């Protein structure tokens, strides 16, 4: 099961990085208007209209892969902690044990018994 989680995590990271690259390559909607008035060139690698279709469809597919891998990782993460009941309870239970040990180590010394003589302080 650990191998499956690692493969899904690798797919998620790869989809995220490629999706970031594709989004940065795409032109905004206002880029064509600037090219129409002579402020830039409208040439692109995939042609005038083909680039928008190819890049936007590839981005949509990668977004779907990213969403599916995120849901799969959440499912497998919850399946690992099925005995604890909640994802949030497991870290809280693990953090409570060292806190109790630390508070016992720094606890103030016990007060003397009621019959013992106490030294007054000024």
UniProtKB/TrEMBL annotation:
Main location: membrane
Keyword line: Cell membrane, Membrane, Protein transport, Translocation, Transmembrane, Transmembrane helix, Transport
Subcellular localization: Cell membrane
Secreted keyword on record: no
Keyword Protein biosynthesis attributed: no
Family in the record: Belongs to the SecG family.
Species assigned in the record: Verminephrobacter aporrectodeae subsp. tuberculatae
Function, as annotated: Involved in protein export. Participates in an early event of protein translocation.
Name this polypeptide is given: Protein-export membrane protein SecG
Transmembrane segments: 7-25, 54-76
UniProt-listed Pfam families: SecG
């Amino acid at each position: 099961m650990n191998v499956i989680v690692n493969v899904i995590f690798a797919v998620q990271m790869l989809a995220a990085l490629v999706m970031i690259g594709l989004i940065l390559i795409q032109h905004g909607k206002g880029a064509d208007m600037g090219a129409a008035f002579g402020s830039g060139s409208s040439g692109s690698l995939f042609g005038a209209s083909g680039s928008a279709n190819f890049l936007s469809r590839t981005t949509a597919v990668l977004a779907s892969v990213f969403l599916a891998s995120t849901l799969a990782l959440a499912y497998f993460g919850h399946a690992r902690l099925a005995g604890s009941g909640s994802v949030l309870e497991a870290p809280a239970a693990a953090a409570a044990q060292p806190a109790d040990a630390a508070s016992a180590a720094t606890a103030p010394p016990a007060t003397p018994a009621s019959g013992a003589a106490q030294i007054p302080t000024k």
